[in-house]
Write a structure and sequence with these properties.
Layout (H helix, E strand, L loop, with lengths): L3 E2 L6 E2 L12 E5 L4 E8 L2 E4 L2 E8 L11 E3 L13 E3 L6 H23 L16 E5 L2 E2 L5 E2 L4 E3 L2 E5 L5 H10 L7 H19 L4 H8 L6 H11 L18 H24 L28 H21 L12 H15 L31
Parallel strand pairs: 8-9, 9-13
Antiparallel strand pairs: 1-2, 3-4, 4-5, 5-6, 6-7, 10-11, 12-13
Length: about 375
């Protein structure tokens, strides 16, 4: 994530800032220019100091303090590049739902920052009704009999469902512990689930199945049986030698989604480190050499290996800082050679993602079931 500045006073500002803490100017994100801009009111619109040539409006979800993105006033819509993909949101008259949804939107906007940087195709359900990308943010429902019907996070043909309970820190920690996951975050959920969407679009519909199977395995293995086997038996011994996480061992689809999410983690973390001037050596030879700046742009890396060489010393540093504060390692993963090869597959997909413009008819359509349910909830126009 880049570090931005207020055009009015040149104070550093962050991606999710609504106002400049120094001068008080309202701030908005311009996705086309990848910048946070200070804005000034101009009749029924806003003037962005980073782009004075056209009037802007704030996304309609700004009224809920859930979005700070700007839309050209003549765009013909009321939601931004990220929020236009919302299909369902919870009942916002319930305070807990509103607070949790705001956290969801913060993570989702971080996701879309990356998707836009990669220029990935992201049609919504208006543009592609059968396969466009859309989000359902849903809450568990208590039936008249008192039973709780849970919503489980998952992906199904472009629809990403996320239980808003994941935005509750205590609930997410309980699930992380019960499922033996060392790393469970809202942003991680978004990156993982959108990985399934881009598997459909870039691998299946992009004629990359042979290359995928050579690296990740054959996805035609029964998905339901594979998941049940994983939950019953856990990961195989020595899984760290070839997989980024234990869940990645469950099925090639999950291996891809976990690796996809991890690639996005790495690029975002390295860009953030560079923005703050953190100095690290890409290759560690001895402790005294941890002194050189990460001097490349991660979105322009030539290979996954280049990213890994820069990322490993960064993780050593952040883990050491955590330990010095009495905290567990922030980064509990191992980037083995097989994992790096899988990351390279993701890298190649992202570099050539613009070559895939629309889903093509395919004989390899898959039935990847999504667990959980979709109760009727209040719908937000998107």
């Amino acid at each position: 994530m880049k570090l931005f500045e207020c055009q009015n006073c040149r104070n550093p500002v962050h991606f999710d800032n609504r106002f400049c803490v120094n001068c008080g100017y309202r701030l908005g994100y311009l996705p086309d220019k990848n910048t946070i801009s200070a804005v000034e009111p101009d009749e029924a619109a806003w003037t962005a100091l980073a782009d004075r040539g056209r009037p802007y409006l704030f996304c309609d979800n700004a009224q809920y303090d859930a979005c700070n993105w700007l839309i050209p006033a003549d765009a013909g819509r009321i939601t931004c590049e990220a929020c236009r993909h919302n299909r369902t949101v919870p009942d916002l008259s319930i305070e807990d739902n509103l607070n949790r949804w705001r956290k969801m939107e913060l993570a989702k906007h971080h996701l879309f920052y990356s998707l836009l940087r990669w220029r990935l195709p992201m049609p919504d359900r208006t543009e592609e009704p059968e396969s466009g990308l859309a989000f359902d943010f849903l809450a568990d429902v208590t039936t008249p009999s008192g039973d709780s019907e849970r919503v489980l996070t998952g992906h199904d043909n472009g629809i990403i469902t996320i239980n808003i309970a994941e935005a509750d820190d205590a609930e997410r920690e309980a699930r992380r512990t019960s499922m033996k996951e060392p790393y469970r975050t809202l942003l991680g959920h978004f990156r993982h689930e959108v990985g399934h969407y881009y598997w459909d679009r870039l691998v299946r519909d992009g004629n990359k199945l042979d290359g995928f199977r050579a690296v990740f395995g054959d996805e035609r293995a029964d998905y339901g049986e594979a998941l049940q086997r994983h939950y019953d038996n856990g990961p195989p011994a020595g899984w760290q030698d070839a997989f980024i996480s234990s869940y990645a061992t469950a099925h090639p689809w999950e291996d891809f989604a976990e690796t996809w999410a991890h690639y996005l983690h790495m690029v975002d973390a390295l860009e953030t480190a560079g923005a703050f001037g953190i100095k690290l050596r890409p290759k560690i030879r001895k402790a005294a050499e941890l002194a050189l700046e990460v001097d490349f742009k991660p979105y322009q890396a030539t290979s996954a290996e280049e990213l890994v060489e820069a990322f490993v010393p960064l993780t050593v540093a952040v883990n050491s800082i955590n330990r010095s504060m009495g905290q567990p390692d922030l980064y509990p993963f191992v980037l083995s050679l097989p994992v790096t090869q899988k990351l390279q597959f993701i890298h190649d997909l992202l570099v050539h993602s613009e070559d895939v413009t629309a889903p093509a008819p395919s004989d390899t359509k898959v039935d990847r079931p999504i667990e959980g349910r979709t109760p009727k909830m209040e719908t937000q126009a998107g």
